[in-house]
Amino acid sequence: MSATTPPDIVRCAYLDLVVTDLARAREFYVDVLGLTVTAEDDEAIYLRTLEEFIHHNLVLRKGPVAAAAAFAYRVRTPEDVDRAEEWFAARGCRTERRKEGFVKGIGDSVRVTDPLGFPYEFFYEVAHVERLAWRYDLHTPGALVRLDHFNQVTPDVPKGREYLEDLGFRVTEDIKDDEGTTYAAWLRRKDTVHDTALTGGDGPRLHHIAFATHEKHNVLSICDKLGALRMSDVIERGPGRHGVSNAFYLYIRDPDGHRVEIYTQDYYTGDPDNPTVTWDVHDNQRRDWWGNPVVPSWYTEASPVLDLDGNPQPLHERTDSSEMAVTVGADGFSYTRKGDEEQGFKLGSSL
Q1: Pairing mode, if any, of strands 109-113 and 170-176?
Q2: What is the pLDDT of residue 1?
Q3: Other CB atoms within 10 A of residue 37 CB
Q4: Most-buried pick from 112, 154, 199, 333 (CB within 10 A)?
Q5: CA distance 197 to 271
Q6: Which of 196, 149, 150, 154 lies closest to 171, judged by CA?
Q7: Cα separation of 191 and 195, whole Å?
Q8: What secondary structure, in 3-state letters, does the chain show?
Q9: Rounded distance, CA 36 to CA 47, Å?
Q10: pLDDT (tens digit per residue) in 5-17
């Protein structure tokens, strides 16, 4: 393996997302969720959260196929863009560099097709905009304040974990079984539980993008608003409390089916000896701390990702056991207290 130095990644910064109906997407992300428009034209809308000072956290771009075009990360220095290009090229990955950037508001950038087939972008140069943290006149009851993380579906979680650790990410939590199968892993650069996560399944696909609120009541307010607008059908899962990450969550689906998580109150992970938390795949509280079942669509449905030419990446089938197969339905086994023989009404029949 080449001795190239990986880039110093600061955080997940924005998602370049292709939508099929820009007007409907704008209604969802701006009118309903309250994201702030930084710029827009007939082809794209650039959105940011209330505490953000860089140009955007989400690009909605009109296209024929709803898909993720780039998972973008801010790096610490301009030289780290060079390092990203060299690091991925040394691993045989396709790279494309644009000094003027791939989207508005972002300068010199490199996009790569990573070893898992995902389109990653790395940039330093960015336009600054007004941080709206103090503009409480603009804050809604469900105010989205930060981009928190991505979640990616890949058939080989251990391979992805090893590659991302080589890239400088650190694992904070994972889900395994006694046979050694890894079902999911959470990896971070900033000092929270994750900047991205790997979920086992057919991939590469985007599982979700997550935006943070300050408190639980903000998440509940979003649920109330969706109900008032007769949009409760977009709520896929939650609200609830995760075991993994300890965060309060809600999963909703946009007009194209892209999954959005609303997320709050995870924990600090910045110490060098921060311990990795490992969950048993059969622990009924790993995905929902209250033991509520996960809907099957959450395990099976996700968004395509694009290659650097804008074409959907082909899917590769997961050959390891799936988390849904070993924990959901009549053939699955879960526990609330390890060693219990009795299965309650929540366990073994969550379909």
Answers
A1: unpaired
A2: 44
A3: 13
A4: 154
A5: 20
A6: 196
A7: 9
A8: CCCCCCCCEEEEEEEEEEECCHHHHHHHHHHHCCCEEEEECCCEEEEECCCCCECCCEEEEECCCCEEEEEEEEECCCHHHHHHHHHHHCCCCCEEEECCCCCCCECCEEEEECCCCCEEEEECCECECCCCCCCHHHCCCCCCCEEEEEEEEECCHHHHHHHHHHCCCEEEEEEECCCCCEEEEEEECCCCCCCEEEEECCECEEEEEEEECCCHHHHHHHHHHHHHCCCHHHEEEEEEECCHHHCEEEEEECCCCCEEEEEECCCCCCCCCCCCEEEECCECCCCCCCCCCCCHHHHHCCEEEECCCCCECCCECCCCCCHHHHHCCCCCCCECCCCCCCCCCCCCCCC
A9: 5
A10: 999 999 999 999 9
Instruction: With a cut of 80, say whether residue 4 has pLDDT above it.
Output: yes
Q: Which two structure tokens, joined as six digits, stand for 277?
A: 């938390």
pLDDT digits (tens, 9 = 90+) for 100-140: 999 999 999 999 999 999 999 999 999 999 999 999 999 99
Name all contacts of 175-182 with Cβ < 8 Å and 24+ positions apart.
175/244, 175/278, 175/279, 175/280, 175/281, 175/286, 175/323, 176/278, 176/279, 176/280, 176/281, 177/280, 177/281, 177/282, 177/321, 177/326, 178/280, 181/281, 181/320, 181/321, 182/157, 182/158, 182/320
Name the residue among 269, 148, 209, 183 with its Cα closest to residue 17. 209
Question: Starting at the edge strand that comes first in sequence, how are the strands of the sheet with 58-62 ordered?
Answer: 36-40, 44-48, 58-62, 9-19, 67-75, 119-123, 109-113, 95-98
Is it the case that residue 170 has pLDDT exceeding 70? yes
Checking phi first, is residue 151 left (phi over 0); if not, alpha (psi -120 to 50) or beta?
beta
Long-range interactions of 132-139: CB distance < 8 A, separation 24+:
132/36, 132/50, 132/51, 133/50, 133/51, 135/50, 138/36, 138/50, 139/50
What's the rounded Cα separation, in Å, for the pair 114 and 209?
A: 18
Is 331's pLDDT higher than 60?
no
